Every structure is written in structure tokens, then in C-alpha cells.
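re the bet — no i am not wrong, look at it urself. input seq straight from the record:
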Amino acid sequence: MPNEKASLLEQKVLAYIREKKLVSPGEKLMVAVSGGADSVCLLYVLAGLRQELGIDLHIAHLNHELRGKESEADARYVAGLAKRLGIPATVESRDVKVYQKRHRLSMEEAARELRYDFFFNVAKEAGARKVAVGHTADDHIETLLMHLIRGSGMNGLRGLVPATNLKVSGGRLSVTRPLLCFSRQEAVAYCRASGLKPRLDASNMSTEPLRNKVRHDLIPELKKYNPRISQALARLSRNAAADLDFIDAEARRLMNSILKVNKDSVVIDKKGFLVLHPALQRRLLRLSIESMLGSLKDIEAGHIEDIIDALDKPAGRAIGLPFGLCFTIEYDRYVLAPESISLCPFPALAGEKELKVPGRTVFSGWEAEAVIVTPSQFKKEGGEDNDSSACFDFARVGRKLTVRRRLPGDRFQPLGMVQPKKLNVFMIDARIPRKWRPRVPIVCSGDDILWVVGYRIDERYKVRPDTDKVLRLEFKRT
């Protein structure tokens, strides 16, 4: 039986479990036990609280086969704990080194993937809805610092959360962390007070993995500047999490009006998205990517910033993301889809079509509207071109305009340039994907190109100070 000190620590965990609603009466909880102080503490605390919480337990231990006889001894130790407590257990082995080489991962990544896949399968077989792991407040601070070092952005300031869903090879695994209210020192104290002798893993003293460098080198160094650095970082994490929760709630509220989630793509309304605060834009992007990939693993802050920086670029720009995902800019929308099926924003063009000036012309999936306005109206409306509209000196372009696909030998003088340029070279410089180029509408006056729709008008036909009438063209998808 645990002494008074251990009982107080158990009550601390009980209060935390109830506050965070980590388990429900009547459910079975799987407990991940490595044999170290944190996981042994977790096991005995939950075993002592079984009746009060109304839960059943199942122990899971995975031998990673990395430390030879020491790993085998860990497995025997955990099996002995399970027998002593009368709790069913699943103890198995996996060759992490083989898995690491096969999947070209770091040793830490390989061990983690195998471990959580194992937990998922054991939980499924045992009928457990969740797995409890022994992460403490110290692990939380280490994780937060690791996120900062890797440049994960605001989202990384959450660190470890009390409950989460992880994507594993078999599906999704619900993970709870009842000891986040504990320090590592308290876990060791609990084991000592309860007469327990956890296993020691000598590899935890190595400074090779990043986590161990943070634990043994960085945090002691930071404590020289602020002895209460852990408390300060924990406070920062709580405040960031509260702010992120608010942003997340607002983003989810806006999802239905901004995003259209399809089976193999996410379509984002461009106009609605661009007026949002950047914090909401970033969160909606993360939600979109997560809906496609199932998780945000390997999606870094830099990927999100690359997309943010490209939002106002011309249609046709594409941003490559991990796992073959592609963010594509179109006229009136953004599309997130696998690169292999990334959608072209332009329908196929059929032949040549004369435009009604003024008037409305429908052709090949497009609707073109031509309006003639005075210079004063032009200035009042802002007088600026965008992806879908452009303005010209009407006297220079005339009424007989046509729209067609590009032709060999096409040249024009892009706005701002003093010399003509081959259209093909312009499209390459504008980073228009090769397969899209034949679909880009080309507006012409006779043999002269006026506008590469969505990209650039011709310098010679722009609105000038002496322009008498302005022709405004607008293209929309039908």
C-alpha cells in the first residue's frame, strides 16, 4: 500500500484526470509501460485509482530490441508488475533497426512509429478505447523547446496536450497523458514512496538524441538565466494554447463558407479567404492540409508561410508540400490536392471566339464581359487590373477583339517592359505549368496580343493620361 505522500500524489492525478475528462467510468484503458520511473508511476497511480475512476486496465510493453539483455530484462520486469497487480498485459518485441533501415527514418522516429502502431493493435484487441502514456510536465517543456528549435511556429507552443488523437498505420489512436500535472521528480518520489524500483535506461543519459540534448544541456543552461524557466515556459504554453483554441474555434466556424472539402481535394474561396486575418488563414490552411493527410506530421511553419507569401501571386503558381500535396493558385480559388491530380484552373479552349464589345460573351467554360467607361469612372473604380480583369485604352484596341489559345511564334510586350517577348518565354518566367499553357486565354486585337488573361496586359495598350475611353474586360469561369 502506498504511504501518505504517494496517496497525495495519486489524488493530484485524480483531480487532473477529472478536470481534463481524460477517462470515463466503465471504459478500459491501456497503459503503456516501458519499465522506467514515469511509466511505472503511471501504472501504479492508475491501478490505485481503478475503483474510484470505474475503469479497467490493460498493460502494453514493447521491447525495441535496441539494448540486448537490458531490453529483455525490462520486458520481464513489466510482466512481473502486471502479474503482481493482477492486470492483463501484452508484452511483445519489434526489431526497430530493421524498420528504421527499411523506412529510412531516424532511430527515434522508427521506435516511435513502431511503438504507437503496437499500442493501436493491442488496444484494439483488448477492447481499450485509449492508451495512457507516462509523459510528465518535464516532457512537456522539452517538447515545447524542441518545437521552437525546429521552427514549428505558434502551434508548437502547445507542447504536449492532455489528450490527442494520433494517426497510425491502422487508423487513429486516442492518447491520454494523466501525468502532465506531475514533474519527473515527483514520479521518482512516488516510486520511492511506494517501494518501487523502476528500471534505468542508460540511453537516456546519452546526448545524441535532440530530446536528451535539450534535457541535459539546454534546460540547465536556460536555468542560469531564469531558475524558473520551466514555469515560465509552461505559462507561455498555456496562454498560447488558449489563444490557439480561440483561433481554432473561429476557423472551424468559417470552414463551411470558405472551404469545400472533397474526396481528393480542398477548394478554398479566394475572395473570402484573402479578407481573413492571417492567423485565421494559417489555421484554415492547417485544417485543410490535415483533412487531406490525416495529420500535420512533417508540415512545418515554413510550409504554411510559403503558401501565405504566394496568396496574391498570379493564377498558375503552385506550392509543393510534403507527401506529394500541392497548393495551386487559380483565378477565384485555391486548390489543395495531390500533385498527380492537381486541377488546372483553365478549361480547354475550343478554337477562336470573337468578343462582344461592349457586351457579354460565353465560350469554352468562360464568360467574358466588356464594358466601356470614361477615365473618371475608371479612376473612381480604382483603375487597377487583377487576375480576372484588365483595362485598356479603347481607342487603341478597337471593338474587334478575339480570344484564343496561344500559337507558335506568339510575342507581346508585357506591361512594364520596353521590348517584345516571346509568349512561351513569358509563360516559363511566370512559372505557368507546361500542361496549363495551351489553356490560358489570349485576348487579341488583330494579330496583336492585348492580354494573357490572369497574368499580364501588353504595355502598348495600357490606359494612359490622354486616354479618352477605357475598355474593361472581365473573365469569369462559368
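see?? Residues 244-341 form a domain with the Uridine Diphospho-n-acetylenolpyruvylglucosamine Reductase; domain 3 fold (CATH 3.30.465.60). told u. also DSSP finds 16 helices and 22 strands in the chain. so pay up
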